[in-house]
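Inverse folding, one chain.
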């Protein structure tokens, strides 16, 4: 452990105290010899570094944004979700911290071992259910009397949200999350031992006029195989090593070549007044700004690309490309 560096004012105050007798030099030596003990709670073993916790927070920031968009579309109302905190605590402490009656969804995340828990606060869960059933999104806590239909509707809504979780974790590991269990009493869920370290991601959620928390509990056993990938070094190395493979270039080129474009040919343009337009009749002639000896402009998605001349090909109107129209920013590339 590095020695503490004192400021000049602290040194002067210390010398002054020693000279005046307020402090005893021998006493200071005895205190220095005493063994310094740091309290460590084995029930709260820290198994994730701050760097890894920040990576998990970054992943779920992205997940929260995607979840906000998904629930807004499904519920047709204002939804805002953001990461409130990311902590590592014993599993027993997590179970004690959530309500005795709540909405719990247990998911497997193959190929990772173990399962994770999504805890939806009843205020949030019932606001979602009310919106699905055509209500205004009000929250009425009736968790003790959930019907089978209500349970099915909630499960389907939460299960379809798993695509967002899969995409958010895609930068670290490809997972296939699946809903395995739906529960309302946390005492019936014993995923890991009480002292096992879990990461709890708390999402602050607002749906219409209702607000509450969505808590995601991820046991250490789930994250253990991918812990090295949660470091900043991995993220930086992964960003620097993103090079396309030859087959990816070929696939991209093939898809671009098959893209459809709108192509049109402008015979000419002119400007007339509204009065002239109103009095146009049969046999009237409109003079365009193009001479019959001038090439026409071929437009690709309303952008001029080629000079062409009109003609026929197998009894169909056609144009022949004469030259490319050059100019603009593209010529500088």
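Residues assigned per position:
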């Amino acid at each position: 452990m590095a020695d503490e560096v004192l400021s000049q004012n602290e040194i002067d105050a210390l010398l002054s105290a020693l000279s005046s007798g307020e402090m005893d030099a021998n006493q200071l030596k005895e205190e220095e010899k005493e063994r310094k003990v740091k309290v460590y709670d084995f029930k709260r073993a820290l198994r994730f570094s701050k760097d890894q916790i920040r990576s998990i927070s970054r992943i779920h920031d992205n997940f929260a944004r995607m979840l906000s968009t998904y629930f807004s579309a499904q519920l047709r109302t204002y939804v805002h979700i953001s990461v409130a905190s990311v902590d590592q605590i014993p599993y027993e402490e997590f179970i004690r911290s959530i309500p005795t009656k709540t909405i719990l969804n247990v998911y497997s995340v193959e190929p990772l071992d173990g399962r994770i828990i999504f805890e939806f606060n009843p205020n949030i869960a019932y606001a979602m259910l009310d919106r699905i059933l055509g209500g205004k999104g009000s929250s009425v806590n009736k968790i003790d009397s959930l019907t089978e239909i209500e349970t099915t509707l909630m499960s389907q809504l939460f299960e379809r949200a798993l695509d967002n979780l899969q995409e958010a974790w895609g930068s670290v590991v490809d997972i296939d999350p699946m809903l395995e269990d739906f529960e309302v009493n946390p005492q019936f869920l014993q995923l890991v031992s009480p002292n096992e370290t879990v990461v709890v991601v708390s999402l602050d959620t607002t749906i219409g006029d209702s607000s509450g928390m969505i808590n995601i509990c991820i046991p250490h056993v789930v994250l253990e195989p991918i812990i090295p990938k949660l470091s900043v070094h991995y993220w930086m190395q992964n960003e620097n090593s993103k090079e396309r493979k030859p087959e990816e270039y070929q696939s991209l080129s093939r898809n671009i070549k098959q893209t459809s474009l709108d192509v049109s040919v402008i015979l000419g343009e002119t400007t007339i007044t509204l009065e002239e337009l109103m009095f146009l009749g049969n046999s009237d002639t409109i003079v365009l700004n193009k001479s019959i000896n001038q090439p026409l402009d071929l437009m690709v998605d309303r952008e001029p690309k080629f000079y062409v001349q009109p003609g026929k090909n197998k009894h169909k109107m056609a144009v022949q490309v004469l030259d490319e129209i050059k100019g603009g920013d593209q010529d500088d590339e």
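Confidence is low (pLDDT under 50) at residues 328-333. The chain has two domains: 50-239, 260-325.
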